[in-house]
UniProtKB/TrEMBL annotation:
Keyword Cell membrane: yes
Residue span, ABC3 transporter permease C-terminal domain: 280-391
Family: Belongs to the ABC-4 integral membrane protein family.
Name the UniProt record assigns to this protein: ABC transporter permease
Pfam families: FtsX, MacB_PCD
Principal location: membrane
Membrane topology: Multi-pass membrane protein
A single GO molecular function term of this UniProt record: transmembrane transporter activity
Annotated ranges, domain MacB-like periplasmic core: 30-232
Keywords attached to this entry: Cell membrane, Membrane, Transmembrane, Transmembrane helix
One term under GO cellular component: plasma membrane
Length: 398
């Protein structure tokens, strides 16, 4: 006696049959896949942009160094402003692991675009005395003109920070560029780029230490001291800087590490990233509901096909596998489209910001895996429902 058995469907047959079902409804498939793609693109974009920002920060810190410490005066026990001793720079420079020391000092002078600007409209720009080695220690750079030198730091010449130049309307340095500083004309000899490790320089008009004392009523006390330290001794030096700068009142000294501020700023972005990831997850869930809706409607519309396939010998398992394959293919199309869209968004935004474009491989693989899981869950019920239909029931309802 010959026993007839139903042949098993090969993998390529499953894919072919599932793909045929999708090709029959291209617009509905596109809209359902778009929901999945938006969710994956949102999640991948958040991860990619965050990774690109982190990589940019790492490159900045690698270029600028994380071994810069700053010392500034704090407050007295009575809440009054204190000042650093005149010997503070020299004493800090005697610490063995300290490789270089420089300083700036705030003057009472104000700076304006010209002598007709009202005195109250300062633009929040400070006039700051600076040592000649300031750029070397802080990592700041000049984008126009030049930095103060042994000649210009004794004369009415100034270098503007990036924001200060913008607020004063100075595009580039030159002999014809002058600002009204401290009640007299100063020539703008240079303009700085933004200084990540010393953001206070961005809003400053920097002048030489000698000219500040001679013409701007500067008292000569440093308000910020910058110290470069051997990398392996940064923590140890930070612990003794206060007592070294002001042995009599170490509690009136504030010590900070600018690179920690940049890292803290990066950490605060994690909260926003978590929120955006949550929104991406919601979008992905909505996309999964769209896939489920498409598959349920597909089962209802294709009862005749299901009945015909069952009457021709297709088993319940094959029907279930067919509709599950359609759901997985639909989700995979959306997932791959979302990955490509997320990479495009990340690349475009990173290029706009001047960052390196970084899209973690784990995020891309995770995105595709998430879509397959969503597709499997979304297609399970429609596939089971289709498989439970008897041939006579399916054909009778057409």
């Amino acid at each position: 006696m010959t026993v007839l058995t139903t042949p098993r469907m090969r993998s390529r047959d499953v894919v072919r049959v599932g793909g045929a079902g999708l090709r029959a409804r291209p617009l509905r498939v596109f809209l359902s896949a778009l929901g999945i793609a938006i969710g994956i693109a949102a999640m991948l974009g958040v991860v990619g942009i965050s990774a690109s920002s982190q990589e940019d920060l790492n490159r900045q810190l690698e270029a600028l160094g994380t071994n810069l410490l700053t010392v500034s005066p704090g407050q007295t026990l009575f809440g009054e402003a204190s000042h650093l001793p005149a010997e503070a720079e020299g004493m800090i420079g005697q610490i063995a692991p300290v490789t270089s020391v420089t300083a700036t000092g705030t003057t009472p002078a104000k700076v304006y675009r010209n002598d007709h600007v009202p005195a109250a409209e300062t633009g929040s720009i400070s006039v700051t005395a600076a040592r000649l080695d300031l750029l070397q220690d802080t990592g700041a750079t000049v984008v126009s003109g030049s930095w103060l030198n042994a000649a210009t730091h004794r004369y009415p010449a100034t270098v503007l920070g990036a924001k200060a130049a913008d607020r004063l309307g100075v595009v580039q340095a030159g002999p014809d560029q002058r600002v009204w500083l401290g009640g007299q004309w100063f020539t703008v000899v240079g303009v700085l780029a933004a200084a990540p490790l010393a953001p206070e320089l961005d809003t400053a008009a920097l002048v030489g230490w000698p000219v500040a004392e001679e013409r701007l009523d500067f008292d000569g006390y440093a308000t910020t001291i910058y110290a470069r330290v051997q990398e392996e001794h940064v923590v140890a030096v930070r612990d003794v800087l206060g007592a070294t700068a002001n042995p009599e009142m170490p509690n009136e000294v504030d010590v900070s590490r600018p690179s920690d501020v940049l890292a803290a700023k990066q950490a605060t972005d994690a909260t926003l990233n978590a929120l955006l990831l949550g929104l991406g997850g919601v979008a992905l869930l909505v996309g999964g509901v769209g896939v489920a809706n498409t598959m349920v409607i597909s089962v209802l519309e294709r009862r005749a096909e299901i009945g015909l396939r069952r009457s021709l010998g297709a088993t319940r398992g094959q029907i279930r596998l067919q509709f599950l394959a359609e759901s997985l293919l639909l989700s995979a199309i959306g997932g791959l489209g979302g990955v490509l869209l997320g990479i495009g968004v990340t690349t475009a935004y990173a290029s706009f910001q001047g960052w390196p474009a970084i899209v973690p491989v784990w995020a891309m693989l995770g995105g595709v895996l998430a879509t397959l899981v969503i597709g499997g869950i979304a297609g399970f019920y429609p596939a089971v429902r289709a498989a439970r239909m008897s041939p006579t029931e399916a054909l009778a309802t057409t």
